[in-house]
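check this one:
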Amino acid sequence: MDSRSVRNLLQVMSELNLQQRRDFLQFVTGSPKLPIGGFKSLTPMFTVVCKPSEPPYTSDDFLISVMTCANYVKLPDYSDVDILRRRLLTAIHEGQGAFHLS
């Protein structure tokens, strides 16, 4: 895996506590639990793509967004892992129970 952003996301995910992991799964998949077999058993497949930014904004200005029905994460190319962590936790918290088009 050669994407710094995806490696950082995996690092942050591994550091989440149990409740934060459930909240992350709820945010991304619409369910607080994985199916039997874990991420590899998600249908559709769990996917992470780069979320581009346009001037005058930078990637650090955006939250992570998702398409829950597709298990699809749109990840900005954050400048460091701490910004990713803060933006992810904000997105999870603000996105609980919400439905928005992105």
Remarks:
- Residues 18 and 24 are 10 Å apart (CA to CA).
- The chain is about 40% helix and 10% strand.
